[in-house]
Amino acid sequence: GNIEFEGEYLNGKRNGKGKEYYKNGNIEFEGEYLNGKRNGKGKEYYKNGNIEFEGEYLNGKRNGKGIEYFENGNLEFEGEYLDDEVNGKGKEYYENGNLAFEGDYLKGKRNGKGKEYYENSNIEFEGEYLDDERNGKGKEYYENGNLKFEGDFLKGKWNGKGSGYNLNGKLLYEGEYLNGKRNGKGKEYNLNGKLLYEGEYLDDERNGKGKEYY
């Protein structure tokens, strides 16, 4: 006996404006329909009555611009959708409302250029992504805002050429990395910027030919 849908029909199908309801009586969706499917602007709701999504639909799926919310009502995401997946430009948020990520998406994953942020709003990373992982050129930062690493990433780890810095932003190492560790040729520096060592590394340790300096 509870209402499932109320709105407009055409030729036996939902067409025009309408509302869908949960079995508990709370509204599930309100917006526009075409040939029985959600088309145009609409809003989805959690069972507790808080809004879950508002934006554009096509053939029953999220398509175009939209905004998602956490169940507590705070903003979770805003950006572009294609076939129910995040595609194009977008922004993610922490539950406290601070920005977590902004950048490019493809098929629901971070792809292209983007920026990550700590919950305190300081930048954590800026660079390139592939399938939700850091890939390509990028910069990683400590939570205090100082630069931690600048260089090449592969599958989320430091891979290729790069420079590593200490918590105070002083250069410690520049050279080659593999799976997040110093591997290959590189140079170490002291806190005053003077060269300490240049040579070969393996798994973060000096291995192979090298030179030490006073």
Entry summary:
By secondary structure, this protein is mainly β. The protein is 0% helix and 70% strand.
Ends: how far apart?
86 Å
The averaged pLDDT comes out at 97
Helix content: under 10%
Q: Which structural class do the helices and strands define?
A: mainly beta
Uncertain ranges: none
- H-E string: EEEEEEEEEEEEEEEEEE
Would you give an account of this structure?
With 214 residues, the protein is mainly β. The chain contains no helices and 18 strands. The protein is elongated and about 85 Å long.
Keywords:
18 strands; elongated; about 210 residues; mainly beta; single chain
Secondary structure elements and pairings:
Blueprint: E1 5-10, E2 13-21, E3 27-34, E4 37-45, E5 51-58, E6 61-69, E7 75-82, E8 85-93, E9 99-106, E10 109-117, E11 123-130, E12 133-141, E13 147-154, E14 157-165, E15 171-178, E16 181-189, E17 195-202, E18 205-212
Antiparallel strand pairs: 1-2, 2-3, 3-4, 4-5, 5-6, 6-7, 7-8, 8-9, 9-10, 10-11, 11-12, 12-13, 13-14, 14-15, 15-16, 16-17, 17-18
